[in-house]
Amino acid sequence: MEHFARLINLLTTTAAYAPNETDINLTGLATKLGELQTANSDVSNSYAAWSNSRISRNEELCNALTGLVPVALNVKKNM
Fold it and tell me: Rounded CA gap, 29 and 3, in Å?
């Protein structure tokens, strides 16, 4: 994304860059950069939620006192 933004900045200073295609003109490139930034933000937010869920799951399974794994091992040991 950073390189793409630098490319757009370079193209804005180049007067000879004036394509007819809407997806590669400066407006189209700026729109694409905005889409990339939004997608990147969405991935970051989703990753944070996923990571927090894994931490919660691991705590539920492996807590030394109340976790499912230690409790099951204790039950097996006492049978």
Answer: 12
pLDDT surpassing 90 at residue 31: yes
Per the document, the length of the chain is 79
**Can you give the residue ranges of every domain in the chain?**
2-78
Is the confidence at residue 60, as pLDDT, over 90?
no
For residue 18, what are the contacts with CB-CB under 8 A and spacing of at least 6?
25
d(CA 66, CA 77): 16
How far, in Å, CA of 5 to CA of 9, rounded? 6
Pull the structure tokens for residue 65: 């006192």
Q: Which of 13-17, 19-23, 67-71 has the lowest mean pLDDT?
A: 67-71
Q: Is 25 exposed, middle or buried (0-12, 13-18, 19+ CB in 10 A)?
A: middle
